[in-house]
Design goal:
Length: about 400
């Protein structure tokens, strides 16, 4: 394999034309779409229109004339096919953390009649905000609930027993890219009488997801990673139709009211997915999410997955071949069914090496302990990008061109 072979792969890539829909800086190989997706070209004009016309000229009338009020549901319906959800089952709103809090509270409430079930089972290596939300909720409830942390995916099945109310898992692990078998885990949770809540932050837009087929109960996720919705873009929450009547959550804001403009003093939950809403939404940010979703409507998740696996296979093979003399360790599963759309390598000086890569235009990121993360977004990542990134990594390692004393920024 050489660079010309990679160029030939790009020439035959049916997804290659989608790269033109993103505004990528010249001379940058962007391998951090698993943390923040690139900007769709349409986003700038869309933001200008929302600010100048919808807000600046039409002012408050845009809640009706521009459809601001229904935007969370409309976006949810556009996102739904990417995660195997139906119309009226998803809303885009709030943050992943807040949506997780709502979903977890609702799941515990649905299980509250089963008084022996007081445990939330999750992984110690889950994304920290998920753990913090579960810890905060159980502490606040103060009714005997507890969080049971499992140290490995192999221990999960045994940890889910008759005292388990909810299993809370991230589908693709943020550090390693390990992907759970959603159908098998959901089935096992149900066999034990538990509900299962999935975090799709590293799945939505990266791997095919079919929540209804695979038996999930609730799900949340973000739009600013593979969905390219912009920094801090609103998240989403999925509540299947079969659970909507029983779904109740403590953040009962006015957007979740059956008649929000009746201004009644008592809360009355609306029917359907609207009960997952809370307060007034950030409209400018919401509108930009649509620009990212529009690109996905030009292709399909199976084509995206096929290219993702090809890109990550190539990256692993090239790093192991061309950087074999260096202390790199593959932290990501080789098995396709267990891999998301990122590749993580460990290195004793991982942070310093990543900073050297970024300084040379290869942007990935770093997570403790000693993990360099490389995210592959098939909508705009090319096979030549993979070759060039590995060549730059090889030179950095061969020349020890990294500063082990590099100071760390607030975000790594």
């Amino acid at each position: 394999m050489n660079r010309n072979d990679c160029l030939a792969l790009d020439a035959g890539d049916a997804l290659a034309p989608l790269r033109q829909h993103f505004d990528l800086p010249e001379g940058v190989i962007y391998l951090d779409g698993n943390s923040l997706g690139a900007r769709p070209r349409a986003a700038l004009a869309r933001a200008q229109d929302v600010i100048a016309r919808e807000w600046g000229r039409d002012l408050i009338t845009s809640w009706n004339t521009a459809g601001w009020f229904d935007l969370p549901k409309r976006l949810g319906d556009r996102l739904a096919p990417l995660i195997g959800a139906g119309a009226g089952e998803v809303v885009v709103n709030d943050t992943t953390s807040l949506n997780l809090f709502k979903a977890l509270a609702a799941a515990l409430h649905m299980q509250s009649a089963k008084t022996e079930r007081k445990v939330i089972v999750t992984e110690r290596g889950n994304f920290p905000t998920d753990l913090y939300m579960a810890q905060g909720l159980t502490s606040w409830l103060d009714r005997g609930y507890q969080v049971r942390l499992v140290d490995s995916s192999e221990q999960l099945a045994d940890a889910i027993g008759p005292d388990c109310a909810v299993v809370m898992l991230t589908h693709v692990n943020y550090r390693t890219g390990y992907q759970h078998d959603m159908a098998a885990m959901s089935r096992h949770a149900h066999e034990q009488g538990a509900l299962i809540l999935w975090d799709l932050a590293h799945s939505a837009g990266a791997v095919p997801v079919d929540l209804r087929r695979d038996g999930a109960d609730l799900a949340v996720g973000c739009t600013y990673k593979y969905l390219n919705g912009g920094p801090g873009a609103p998240a989403f929450i999925w509540v299947p139709e079969r659970h909507q009547a029983a779904f109740t959550q403590p953040l009962s804001g006015w957007w979740g009211h059956a008649r929000p403009f009746a201004m009644a003093p008592e809360f009355e939950a609306t029917a359907g997915i609207g009960r997952a809403l809370c307060g007034t939404q950030p409209i400018v940010s919401l509108t930009l999410v649509e620009c990212g979703l529009e690109v996905f409507e030009r292709t399909g998740m199976h084509a995206i997955r096929a290219k993702s696996l090809a890109l990550t296979d190539l990256f692993i093979a090239l790093v192991e071949e061309r950087c074999a003399s260096h202390p790199l360790g593959l932290a990501t599963p080789r098995e396709h069914a267990r891999r998301g759309s990122q590749v993580s390598f460990t290195h004793p000086h991982g942070y310093a090496v990543m900073q050297a890569l970024i300084a040379r235009g290869v942007i990935g990121d770093y997570r403790e302990p000693a993990i360099m993360r490389f995210g592959f977004t098939p909508l705009y990542t090319s096979f030549a990008d993979v070759w060039d990134a590995v060549e730059i990594l090889r030179r950095i390692l061969d020349e020890r061109a990294y500063d082990v004393a590099a100071s760390r920024g607030a975000v790594t």
